Amino acid sequence: MELALINTLRRLNRVIALAVGLGLLGMAAFVVADIALRQVHASFGGSEELAGYAMALASSWGMSYALLELGHIRIDLIRSRTGSMARALFDVFSMIVMSGVVVTIAIKCWPVVARAVENGSRANTPLATPLAWVQVPWFAGWVWFAVVSCLVTLAALGLLVRGRAAETEPFVGAFAEQDSLT
Known about the structure:
Number of strands: 0
Number of helices: 6
Order of helices and strands: HHHHHH
Radius of gyration: 20 Å
């Protein structure tokens, strides 16, 4: 059950990563077109602002993909010198801590979004972008990361409790640099 959940989350995150990647590619094309237009003294205007919004969205939504692809940076000096059960315990502990931090971030993001929605806040820029247009999907990305992080933690705990510690390595382990060299 736990491994099926992880595989489902991986599939969902790959679709999300593809959509985010296409959005970034589209934003890059927009910025290039804006730069080209500047050469003939014209411009779409606001490409810097929109690119910043795209980066915020890509960051919040990309975190859960990086989590399941073991893309987050971890210092595994002690972990790498232990047996499989101790490594699994370190991994689960790190996931518990990460889940706590990510849930806290998602909770702290909500008042920012709620205030922008209630006040109809707009960016203090020439585009005057309604901030809710950016902050709601940004917040949703953090919530998704929190949900994925908690589900991954629960799956790892479930395997650990049932004595299947080695099965947690592929989704909560640390990507070791030496593994990529072989």
